[in-house]
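thread: overnight batch results

M.L. [08:02]
morning all. the overnight job finished for the chain we discussed friday. pasting input first so we're all looking at the same thing
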Amino acid sequence: MKMIKVLLVIAAVSVSSLAMAEGGSDRIFDRAHAANKAAMQAYK
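M.L. [08:03]
and the structure it wrote out:
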C-alpha cells in the first residue's frame, strides 16, 4: 500500500515537471500539486 502512495507522489512530480517543460500550464501544475498533496496526506 505504501508503494502505491509513493508511486502516486512520483507520478504527480513527473506530471508537474512535464507541465513546466511544456510552457508551465498552471492548470496541469495545480492538478498535479493537488494529487501530490493528497498522496502525502494519505501517506501520513
